[in-house]
Amino acid sequence: MATQTKPVLHGYFRSSCSWRVRIAFALKGIEYDQVPVNLIKDGGQQLTDKFKTLNPMQQVPAVEIDGITISQSLAVIQYIEETRPGPRLLPTDPKKRAQVRMICDLIASGIQPLQNLYVIQKIGAEKVQWAQHFIERGFQALEPILKETAGKYCVGDEISMADICLVPQVYNAERFKVDVGKYPTIKRLNQTLIEIEAFKVSHPSCQPDTPADLRA
Amino acid sequence: GPVLHGYFRSSCSWRVRIAFALKGIEYDQVPVNLIKDGGQQLTDKFKTLNPMQQVPAVEIDGITISQSLAVIQYIEETRPGPRLLPTDPKKRAQVRMICDLIASGIQPLQNLYVIQKIGAEKVQWAQHFIERGFQALEPILKETAGKYCVGDEISMADICLVPQVYNAERFKVDVGKYPTIKRLNQTLIEIEAFKVSHPSCQPDTPADLRA
């Protein structure tokens, strides 16, 4: 496939959804540019009219790639999977693919949207308990599922989109002071995955827009 | 054959019912009443099917899958029949983007569990998140839609849209403010697969809500 301009990721260092995309790019060995969108500064740069043209939902990530703009991290990642060579991000077996997607969606629909910045700003004073509640609820479900599906990684012994979703969600859990030790399979998988290069180079602590006080 | 554990009025369960109908797949339904008995999804028995204690959960080919979009993509990948995703990767990305906007960006913020937690302000909360999502979806669909959400073939995007419009109407959102959404929904609800799977005519539809 002819390489034209590099993909451009509009994201935020600490956005777990942006991190998913960064991991996928890293796993596939794809070079890309980053345009930081600071979700806090200036009242939230995702709320500008300019960003709205990229993603009317006014959320990160939004990715410009191959002449189109895609929002929704899992749509971006599956597009990358379907158009770029390199290590598979989904297994070949349909039942395992279903398990990967189930885990991804448990996180991407069942946990993260309930604890993202927009929602917790709306919740107000009770935000930490709210976020903890939904993360714990999700992890209480994810733990027995992963006990069934996991080998070395979330589903069997190959890295997949499930792992891509898990690590940033554990990071979020830790930010909200959830004790991940209560979920031994989640903990074990996360510890394995965070040592992998693609997960390290994409980590929030070392992005172009990581503030100095949070840099690794 | 497959067994769908769902609820007549669950938009996520409806998505799966539409997919089965589009593919011409016969299946059994085991109703899970989300209100009765404190919510049948909260039983230990159902928890073994889906630890997240949500509908739908589908038993198929010897496994149990939860998360409606995972179920639907499994059906797509294992059953013949009309495609639920286009062949072109860019169009597939657009379909998934629309599905995820609904399935991650709208529905989880207005499902039963969350609005029960919100309490007294629940209607305004649900309206807020539906309106926010539709305000984003409208310009996206204006770009991507032909006869259907993405081009001129029915896809998972249409499967997600119709149940979400139903939810919007339940919460008294004026869908007329979103002309592309309205137009697409009006086209889709006339299609057989969307009609037979409608909440008004399921095995567990209460008498007072039957069509």
Automatic annotation (TrEMBL), chain A:
Reported cofactor(s): glutathione
Domain GST N-terminal: 5-88
Catalytic activity: RX + glutathione = an S-substituted glutathione + a halide anion + H(+); 4-maleylacetoacetate = 4-fumarylacetoacetate
Signal sequence range: none
Entry EC number(s): 2.5.1.18, 5.2.1.2
Pathway info: Amino-acid degradation; L-phenylalanine degradation; acetoacetate and fumarate from L-phenylalanine: step 5/6
Record-level GO BP terms: glutathione metabolic process; L-phenylalanine catabolic process; L-tyrosine catabolic process
Subcellular location field: Cytoplasm
Source superkingdom: Eukaryota
GO molecular function annotation: glutathione transferase activity; maleylacetoacetate isomerase activity
Gene Ontology CC terms, in alphabetical order: mitochondrion
Sequence ranges assigned to domain GST C-terminal in this UniProt record: 93-212
Keywords: Cytoplasm, Isomerase, Phenylalanine catabolism, Transferase, Tyrosine catabolism
Main location group: cytoplasm
Assigned protein family: Belongs to the GST superfamily. Zeta family.
Official protein name in the record: Maleylacetoacetate isomerase
Organism of derivation: Myripristis murdjan (pinecone soldierfish)
Native organism taxonomy: Eukaryota, Metazoa, Chordata, Craniata, Vertebrata
Gene behind the chain: GSTZ1
UniProtKB/TrEMBL annotation, chain B:
Boundaries of every GST C-terminal domain copy: 88-207
Cellular location(s): Cytoplasm
Pathway involvement of the protein, from the record: Amino-acid degradation; L-phenylalanine degradation; acetoacetate and fumarate from L-phenylalanine: step 5/6
Top-rank taxon, per record: Eukaryota
Record keywords, A-Z: Cytoplasm, Isomerase, Phenylalanine catabolism, Transferase, Tyrosine catabolism
Pfam families: GST_C, GST_N
Cofactor(s) needed for function: glutathione
Gene Ontology annotations of biological process type: glutathione metabolic process; L-phenylalanine catabolic process; L-tyrosine catabolic process
Entry GO CC: mitochondrion
Molecular function per GO: glutathione transferase activity; maleylacetoacetate isomerase activity
InterPro entries: Glutathione-S-Trfase_C-like (IPR010987), Glutathione-S-Trfase_C_sf (IPR036282), Glutathione_S-Trfase (IPR040079), Glutathione_S-Trfase_N (IPR004045), GST_C (IPR004046), GST_Zeta (IPR005955), GST_Zeta_C (IPR034330), GST_Zeta_N (IPR034333)
Principal location: cytoplasm
Catalysed reactions, semicolon-separated: 4-maleylacetoacetate = 4-fumarylacetoacetate; RX + glutathione = an S-substituted glutathione + a halide anion + H(+)
The enzyme's E.C. designation: 2.5.1.18, 5.2.1.2
Transferase as UniProt keyword: yes
Protein family according to the UniProt entry: Belongs to the GST superfamily. Zeta family.
Record NCBIfam families: maiA
Protein name: Maleylacetoacetate isomerase
Lineage of source species: Eukaryota, Metazoa, Chordata, Craniata, Vertebrata
